[in-house]
Amino acid sequence: MAEQEREQEHECEHVRVAVIGSGFGGLGAAVRLRREGITDFVVLERAESVGGTWRDNSYPGCACDVPSHLYSFSFAPNPEWPRTFSGQPHIRAYLESVADTFGLRPHIRLKHEVLMMRWDADELRWEIETSQGTLTADVVVSATGPLSDPKVPEIPGLEGFEGKVFHSAQWDHDYDLTGKRVAMIGTGASAIQIVPAIQPQVAKMTLFQRTAPWVMPRMDRKISGAERWLHEKVPATGAARRGFLWGIRELQVGAFTKHPDRLGLIERIGRSNIARSIKDPALRARLTPTYRIGCKRILLSSTYYPAIAKPNVDVVASGLKEIRGNVVVAADGTEAEVDVIIFGTGFHVTDMPIADRVVGADGITLAEAWKDGMESLRGATAAGFPNWMTIIGPNTGLGNSSMILMIESQLNYLADYMRQLNVLGGSAALNVRASAVGAWNRRVQERMKRTVWNTGGCTSWYLDANGRNTTIWPGTTGEFRAATREVNLGEYEVVRAPVREKEDA
């Protein structure tokens, strides 16, 4: 009877691998699995289409701050990029084309939000509860990404605001901003694109700036038809262009990670960028950062400062404190009456919500395991969570190059992980040793001490609630690729299913 009950429990669909998310990480994992000959997998996506953060972030002016030819998969070059820095519509279209080109559509389950994942130690598999039902998988690849869940601060009086409110990642395209009084909260990567895009149409914009960002000129231009023709007819030219862009950024890494004092020249360029557009000395002072460039994310824009200089824009050098009816109040007491509040306040990065939905071998969630800070081995695997891997995990972020390079490195690690499981044969799982995770993270944090992200004199979203940098990789992308080329089984415990005693019917 017990055996029959177990069979009934496991009548739900079972797959070899379940990939969570269909952004760059999820689609990349799906392609790599197919290249490894693994076709028994699904991609679970909570939205109605693929694209991840490039689907969700459709605000005016949305574009990438990494050159197009570097912000694409090496195995899926795109000779048709229209600009050196492409906009959101073209990046989203690229991801849709990847799903089509590599035959991923049959594997993708849209509108399948993952509600909970639990490790079944008896069956050595993950039980995955989704909004459309339950399935099981031998391996889970979590590719939800750090820029997937918008972060809106708790502001007193926000519920009682009489106007329109939305986050930059949840833009309301049906709401007409023409002639409106707008409060823009935040001055991060999204805000510096939104401000110049909407400034000409709004009646008044009040920009709430807690910390002035370093903004460098954006050297963007149209890619000529001749260039696109050459990259299509002679693919090696596109690869060479990508290689050049990669090499330049690799050479810059040392200044960020070992010699932050060498960034002074870059700061002078940043100050010149301010001076060209901002003639008011008082405003220029408010917009000039007081920390070392690179400590917070360096932003790229040639239109941000000219937009701020317009008479319908006010910069408040303070964060939003409270809201009284339709009046927004800054921490310094500045007040402004507005019709709409736009939050450009980033995402849950060091406290990823998906961590609350993963229950490991010890019966605790990943969020509980990471309560003192995110930790994983090589940005991929966490102790106590067998056969669970994350793409763009702890300390895999970059401050000056393309995240696609890091994703592809982690895909190499995923491929070898699957090979190791096949070699082990039968019913087996790999659980990373806590000692291996600890040793890896001690090395990472030791290297982090010298970096501009830790010594630059700022507080950034790279740091967790304990002030520890659990986001950035303190080295080159080449170093990370070498570190993730293969799985070292000595860093893992091989887990086998328990032997069941025969039971009478």
UniProtKB/TrEMBL annotation:
Chain segments annotated as coiled-coil in the UniProt record: none
Gene Ontology molecular functions: flavin adenine dinucleotide binding; N,N-dimethylaniline monooxygenase activity; NADP binding
Superkingdom classification of source: Bacteria
One Pfam family matching this protein: FMO-like
SUPFAM superfamilies reported for this sequence: FAD/NAD(P)-binding domain
Keywords: FAD, Flavoprotein, Monooxygenase, NADP, Oxidoreductase
Cofactor: FAD
InterPro entries the record matches: FAD-bind_Monooxygenase_sf, FAD/NAD-bd_sf, Flavin_mOase-like
PANTHER family documented for this protein: FAD_NAD(P)-BINDING DOMAIN-CONTAINING PROTEIN-RELATED, L-ORNITHINE N(5)-MONOOXYGENASE-RELATED
Known role: Catalyzes a Baeyer-Villiger oxidation reaction, i.e. the insertion of an oxygen atom into a carbon-carbon bond adjacent to a carbonyl, which converts ketones to esters or lactones using NADPH and/or NADH as an electron donor. Thus, can convert bicyclo[3.2.0]hept-2-en-6-one into the oxidative lactone products 2-oxabicyclo[3.3.0]oct-6-en-3-one and 3-oxabicyclo[3.3.0]oct-6-en-2-one. Is also able to catalyze the sulfoxidation of methyl phenyl sulfide (thioanisole).
Family statement drawn from the similarity comment of this UniProt entry: Belongs to the FAD-binding monooxygenase family.
Protein name: Baeyer-Villiger monooxygenase
Species of origin: Streptomyces beijiangensis
Higher taxonomy: Bacteria, Bacillati, Actinomycetota, Actinomycetes, Kitasatosporales
